[in-house]
Each structure stands twice: as C-alpha cells, then as structure tokens.
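Regression test case RT-17, inverse folding.

Input:
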C-alpha cells in the first residue's frame, strides 16, 4: 500500500482571534484538509477512516 500522507493538524479553538478574519486560521485548515482528503482518495482509501486511524495512534488522540 502506498504511504498515506499525515493529515493537517486542526488548530486549537483558541488560535482563532474571533474578529472575523478572512481568511481565518480555520479556513486555511479546511483548505489543507480538502487537499489531504483528495490525496488519500487518489490512493483508493477512505479519508474518514484514515483520519480515524491517525487519531487512534496520535499521542493526543
């Protein structure tokens, strides 16, 4: 199986300043997550399952 890229790290909710910035730090995260999901799908895998597997094995998960 091809190596699966590491998913982007979700920013801490306190990372957002709450001033309605455009783009917000979460906009950058959402864009990175979409790109990551596309790369995972290209490898014939389910992004949701791969993300769940990463969360199980991560120190904070």
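Golden output:
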């Amino acid at each position: 199986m091809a190596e699966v890229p590491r998913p982007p790290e979700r920013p801490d909710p306190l990372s957002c300043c709450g001033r309605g910035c455009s783009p917000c730090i979460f906009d950058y995260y959402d864009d990175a997550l979409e790109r990551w999901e596309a790369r995972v799908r290209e490898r014939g895998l389910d992004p949701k399952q791969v993300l769940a597997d990463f969360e199980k094995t991560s120190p904070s998960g």
